[in-house]
Amino acid sequence: MEYLPLCMKLTGYPVLLVGGGKVALRKARLLSRAGSRLTVVAPVICDELRELLQLHDGTWNCAGYQVDDLSGVRLVVAATSDSALNTQISHDATQRGIPVNVVDAPALCSVIFPAIVDRNPLLVAITSSGRSPVLARGLRSRIEAMLPAALGRLAAFAGEQRDVVQAALPEESTRRLFWEKVLESNLAELVLAGREEEALALLRESLVDSSTLERGEVYLVGAGPGDPDLLTFKAARLLQRADVVLYDRLVNPVIVDMARRDAERIYVGKRRSEHSLPQAEINRLLVDLAHSGKRVVRLKGGDPFVFGRGGEEIELLARENVPFQVVPGITAANGAACYAGIPLTHRDHAQSVRFVAGYLKGNSVEHDWSQFQSPAETLVFYMGLVGLPVICAQMIAHGRPPDTPAALVERATLPEQRVLTGSLATLPEIVAREAPSAPTLLIIGGVVTLHASLSWFTPGA
Ligand code: SAH
User: Fold this and answer.
1) How far is the CA of 33 from the centre of ligand 1 (A)?
2) 306 in ligand 1 pocket by Cβ < 6 Å?
3) Rounded to the nearest whole angstrom, what is the distance from the C-alpha of residue 21 to the centroid of ligand 1?
4) Any idea which of 221-225, 226-230, 277-281 has the lowest mean pLDDT?
């Protein structure tokens, strides 16, 4: 190992930064985040650096660098474009035993800055020992994506409760096991969700009886419209933690596969007029699984609260005091709109958008059609494939011009996506001819004309 990664306390300590340009600014941001007392030496400094110094009570010394500037500093950073000066600073600092960093000159450094993932107080530092900063940064962005944004809250919470836990569990190995359990449990999820008070109550209970940490919980998770890359970070993380996954037909199997290998997978999917499991049984199953101590992820296509009956599923959970969380997903309308190049609102076409259920009850779609007549509103019909001829006819019958643009987006965001466009008058015939397969989404309004120019997604690419 060429370098030993250490963490340096700078809070309240004087640090010297030589240089006033953009590179110096980047270092100044880091140094002030670490709470150092910053002095910048440079004849000129950029505006942002000046503002930063004002904000953090730093000092700007506009004279040239002098060796006396080093007196009493805990760290010196040289970020000038003058390599002779940088060498001089490195030499002076080394002679005085002051840690020195020269930007982009590893040979002149006694300390180097790692790339960091900041979940303060939790920090991840990555370094290539100065060999390939780009590689280190690339790795950082991957780690960045893996760690929940609120992980710092969890570290802070654990820090605050350390003494309490130590007093209750004086024996070291028992305490370590306890913390391992806590950090893997639903308690950790509570903290990540910003619910520290509930987490604290649970922690106190679990110090008396650690089985409370094994309480089941249900996560109602939106899986998005199809493309697995549209999953949220939170959804991906909870899937990895689930003991059981319940999913329906709309959920892409690739997403279901993201669950742990040993997680139980239960298909509860619904197809039009073929319900694999009646809704009431799904609701009951969620409660029973949670009561048996399972961590359950209920995956729903799109967003759980948009035509997803998510409300019904959590009603019973709430009544039976089962802890739950709801994780939003990208709803089909958003996915279809973006992947088909049909903005849902647009200055020139639509100032509002309405999501409408388009399924047939008997032979009709029950709506007050007179409400849907604003030319400045985009209408998105979910579940409207079978009822499409009725929907188009009703819209026309209630006054929308027959040439109002309309599109049917088939299997939106998936490689098989297809967009059929026409008007209220022509779309039913086009759809009958092309025979698209579900799921499909019907979009009506002037915005549909933008598809021709804004479409970017090449299916199957
Ligand atoms: N909760 C889901 C909607 C469930 S209702 C969401 O927020 O998206 C089911 C309807 O959603 C389907 O009949 C269809 O109209 C629409 N839908 C879901 N995924 C779709 C997709 N990939 N492409 C087109 N429509 C989709």
Assistant:
1) 45
2) yes
3) 51
4) 277-281
